[in-house]
Amino acid sequence: MTSSEIKAHARSLGFDACGIAPAADHAELRFYREWLDRGYAGEMAYLHRTAERRADVRNVVPSARTVIVTATVYNTDRPYSTECADPGRAHIARYAWGDDYHDVIGARLGALLAWMRERSPEPFDARAYVDTGPVQERVYAQYAGVGWIGKNTCVINPELGSWVFLAAIICSLPLAVDRPSLDQCGTCSLCLDACPTQALVAPGVLDSTRCISYLTIELRGDIPEEHRLAVGSHVYGCDVCQEVCPWNAAAPRSDDPAWQPRSAWDRVDLRTLSRQSDDELAAALRGSPMRRTKVHGLRRNIAVASDNAAAKPGDVQTTDSQRG
Ligand code: B12
Ligand code: SF4
Ligand code: SF4
Q1: Radius of gyration over alpha carbons of the chain, in Å?
Q2: Distance from Cα 240 to the centre of ligand 1, integer Å
Q3: How many CB atoms lie within 10 A of CB 209?
């Protein structure tokens, strides 16, 4: 079983890119602890708990030799939030419009691993992860040639852009590895300038405690007063630093039914969302990645966004160019 055969099979299963990285303690992985020490993980305690394992995939699979990384395009034909001039329109992050990628990609990754086990003449050790595993997926994606880590901290593939889900199989097979991707951000700094909360504190460094994605998805309790206005109409996640990226200007779109927007979130306005009953919201959250916040968290976000939509222009203290 060769690397090329694995990549060809990954494509046949619906993955848009696949590359292979060596299982090593790559230099970028060392930045992780510093990032935690600076407090940039906020309340995401699981990132602290798994720090040891995240330092090197061989702490997860001791016999690991390679990491197979896949990318799956989730972009669809709907406009970007930055193209929307109506403050009453709810913004929901693109990745969350369809079915839960943990389930969809998890099943495809499982099928890839099952196929590898069937094909391999020898048994081998392996673990497959989509997002929630103790693996720095972006670092391994870069070393697998899947894309470079942009100044907005997202992995950008030169053909696919950054609207991709990453997933990884750590395995003990000594497969032929790919060349790492080269940084192609150049002198651009559009993402840093566009971030509504100045969460990108330096190129490639994100302070989660300021990031709208963290504030609307990961944070439990109230959104701190100082960030509320800048959250604008974002009710779940944020895409601004990817929407302004030139590498996403002509990004391909997926026609996979899994990623097409559910009618409950499709260009929905804040008033319609506010009027939904708990049962209606719970039904729309079923099988969606948005179930992470539960109805309670979503209501908190809708309330903040609705207050913002009603606010007078003078009330906005931070960069409000993205609120439209
Ligand atoms: C925690 C987390 C978050 C946090 C923190 C994000 C962040 N930028 O760190 C929050 C909640 C804010 C978040 C937001 C989003 N997330 Co998220 N998230 C994760 C998760 C679970 C871990 C990321 C992590 O460990 N961050 C800590 C940083 C320090 O580590 P890192 O991202 O691996 O970065 C490495 C390198 O960049 C390098 N590095 C970074 N800066 C520097 C600087 C120097 C000088 C050096 C030497 C190295 C270096 O070091 C780091 C590792 O040590 C990953 C899944 C995974 N298991 O990896 C998904 C993941 C990164 N998220 C993803 C997505 C889709 C999003 C959102 C787009 C969702 C949304 N629309 O709201 C936003 C994007 C915001 C953004 N600009 O990053 C995708 C990204 C896909 C891609 N193309 O890159 C991932 C990979 C999930 C997946 N399986 O697809 N996320
Ligand atoms: S996701 Fe939004 S808030 Fe977070 S860094 Fe990107 S632009 Fe800033
Ligand atoms: S907007 Fe510019 S600097 Fe930011 S990730 Fe894209 S190319 Fe890199």
Answers
A1: 20
A2: 15
A3: 20
